[in-house]
Specification:
Blueprint: H1 2-39, E1 42-47, H2 59-70, E2 78-81, H3 93-103, E3 109-111, H4 120-126, E4 143-147, E5 150-154, H5 170-181, E6 187-191, H6 211-223, E7 228-231, E8 237-242, E9 257-262, E10 279-284, E11 288-295, E12 298-305, E13 310-317
Parallel strand pairs: 1-2, 2-3, 5-6, 6-7, 7-9
Antiparallel strand pairs: 1-11, 4-5, 8-9, 8-10, 11-12, 12-13
Helix pairs in contact: 5-6
Length: 318
């Protein structure tokens, strides 16, 4: 019996060693993959406001911007689009949105609902690949997704308060607070269509029309030090630094966060200025797209016009 036990041990020992190395290899591979997802770089595009008056989409400008994007050596993993994809004629809205989708073919995109899309049910049905009902009652107009070391949060800014002002309501703010509190990501990016701090054309008619609700929203961004807030609505490019100077009697802000208006994907351009406080660049009245390159704690931003000329570049660290 002892002889057989010795033979069995000699036969099993190599097998045990092989199994141990196999388990270690799987563990190391899994760990390496997690490190890649957490640390390796990726890029994405931000645009907004591509509405046109004839077919509902400014196909010429949006198509040209997409052609430029296709030539980038560092191809984006996806495109964030901060609303107003189309003009929004109520009878033709479904066809207009389908035209927009055809131009965007070949890329994964994540849109926010804009005031020109209007119909939340139609928006949700049109973009069926988006997460649904992460916040009950908002369908696909409020959602988030994670990619690599970043979390992307999309809000609905076209609902209105009792005075008919645009507002990101308390339901969304509670959801947003929980989402940011539970995030273990290096970067948290937020996108919505109507801006908290308009510069010109929509001054007094964006989220600033209800300053208490606006400040309650920005206080959440500030508390969790989001990496950037992407908006549209005004048809130009501008980069605004929101800091402690924007504090109110009820809400104190402590961090520096950029509000980036990327409203130049085809809508009629404007360069009106009503409030330029802390606007670092712009408003630049030109069609454009924003390229964001994320690597670890750094996010590098490059903004290009229709001729692929650089109109702004900067970096944030988290």
């Amino acid at each position: 019996m002892g002889i057989f036990s010795g033979r069995i041990r000699r036969l099993l020992l190599p097998l045990v060693i092989v199994l141990i190395f196999a388990v270690l290899s799987v563990y190391n591979y899994s760990r390496d993959q997690a490190d890649v997802q957490r640390l390796d770089g990726f890029s994405f595009i931000v645009m907004s406001d591509s509405q046109g008056s004839s077919s509902g989409v400014n196909e010429k400008v949006l198509g040209a911007l997409m052609d430029n994007i296709k030539e980038l050596s560092n191809q984006p993993r996806f495109i964030l689009f901060a609303g107003d994809m189309v003009h929004g004629n109520s009878k033709d809205l479904p066809r207009e949105l389908e035209r927009w989708k055809r131009i965007m073919q070949g890329y994964t995109y994540f849109p926010a609902i804009g005031n020109h899309e209007k119909n939340e049910s139609l928006f949700s049905n049109t973009f069926g690949s988006l997460p649904n009902d992460q916040l009950p009652g908002y369908r696909r107009t409020v959602y988030y997704f994670d990619y690599g070391n970043s979390r992307f949060i999309v809000l609905n800014s076209i609902r209105r308060d009792a005075a008919r002002n645009y507002v990101v309501d308390a339901n969304q703010r509670v959801w947003l607070e929980k989402l940011l509190s539970s995030s273990n990501k290096t970067h948290n990016f937020v996108m919505l269509h109507v801006m908290p701090y308009p510069v010109g054309r929509h001054y007094g008619r964006a989220l600033d029309a209800n300053p208490n609700e606006r400040d309650a929203l920005w206080a959440i961004f500030d508390r969790h030090r989001v990496s950037a807030v992407f908006v549209g609505h005004e048809h130009n490019y501008n980069r605004r630094l929101v800091d402690s100077s924007f504090s109110s009697n009820y809400y104190k802000f402590y961090n520096e966060i950029y509000q980036i208006t990327a409203g130049g994907a085809g809508g009629p351009l404007d360069s009106a200025v009503r409030d330029k406080r802390n606007v670092v660049v712009g408003p630049v009245s030109t069609h454009h797209y924003v390229l964001v390159e994320v690597r670890g704690g750094s996010a590098s931003f490059s903004v290009f016009d229709l001729q692929n000329r650089l109109i702004d570049s900067f970096k944030i660290e988290r």
